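Notes from the 1:1 (GR / supervisor)

We went over the backlog. Supervisor wanted to see one worked example end to end before approving the batch request, so GR pasted a single chain during the call. The sequence is below; no edits were made to it. Supervisor asked that the structure be written out right there so they could see what the output format looks like.
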Amino acid sequence: MVACGIVTKRHRQVSDLSPAWQNLWEIVRASKDKSLLSVLPRFIFFLDRIGVAPGHVRSDHALLYLEAVEQNEICKAPLTTYIEAVMGWNRAVDRLPAWPRQRLERPSRERRVMLRETAHFPGFIADIDGYLEMRMRPDLLALDATLRPITASSAATYRYMLLRFASHVVEAGVPVEELISLEDLVAPARVERGLRRMLERTGGKTGPSISDTARLLLTIAAHRGLPETQRTALARFKDRLAVHGTGGMTTKNRDRLRALRATGVLRRLLRLPEQMMERPLGEHRTRALRAREDAIAIGILLYCPLRVSNLSTLEFDRHLHRPGKGQMFIVIPAHEVKNNRPLEFELPPHLVAMIDRHLAERAPLLCAPDCRYLFPAARTAGPTAANSLAERIKKRVRTEIGIDMNAHLFRHLAVMIYLDANPGGYEVARQMLGHSSVSHTISVYSGLETISATQAFAAVVDTLRERS
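Structure output shown during the call:
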């Protein structure tokens, strides 16, 4: 079938995987857990092939996997294969600390609503693909060019969402022959019927899938220039079905930050990198050198609240600049940052000294002398995977300090420390984190000042009490 062009060739060698997925697969293999080894490989290779990073996997990607198994592989039970993959993913979340934390929705045994593409009018499929192509590669010179390009993985997700919604519309009683273009799909009357059908399947409750679908349909209506009355109707559906976040940090992150306010805990964390660096290498030099890498990573996060995806890929010359003796700057260009904002931090002298000392001792046990990465991978010539470094940091802090703290929590800690010392200093916090607007920083971190505010109020009450 591959030779005849009926299906594409499957890539099943570990070397075919991207570094992030390769690292995760090695963790699965090392676990020797048969319930994971039997169901995850094909799913992992599929996700990597469509360009979805481990931390970005969602339930819709699993449904894309089901569609691919149905259309491109000889399989007796595609639905069972899909269900086992989702269950395997969630088992990995429970059993493997390094596995991404997001769980996938448990698939229902109810009949899935998804028409085959061949059931649709060919022009309808072509219109969807043309629209998504425009979203991935918008005309930058067009007079009304306001679109930001979307990634290929986002386009694949949107394509699935549109075909799934079209199937709901048809199941609600609309003849499939009436769906000739996207304009037909986003007509308010059809949108309402499709959304009502989706709500029937969820017991009348909205959720992320329904909310995201309503938002996507409104976006398409705006891009296609539909009349204001139609867009107003779709906007009403979107607002009523929206899944609103709680805003700010999660309760879990607030609880973890609160632990750092305990007497001595924050001080121990701040001193940890230098203390680890002073430990002798001993007989197990490779393990000790990796521990020093952890110390440097923690030290950098304490002064430079980077995302772990940027931290793990730091390169000498490209990211670590030395303008003068004893000085070192971390400089990350905008196109390498999640929100397209450049980052620049100066490292303190003691951290520069730690890095220099480590560089003088790490080769050849950890890497070649000319390795350009600050955190080299153990088995490849590239950088260590972001999720691997994040897991090491988490384990190290738990072992040394006794608290739960992941790499991303260092960003929250940086803001907490600064706002405690400088109440209302959100502009500096915004620049530290690389946020695009102060309003976003305030929406996430305004609650951090509550403790400082209540402590200040308590001090006023104590003063009045002592006077009386």
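Supervisor's comment: The chain has three domains: 14-95, 117-139+148-241, 251-449.
Batch request approved.
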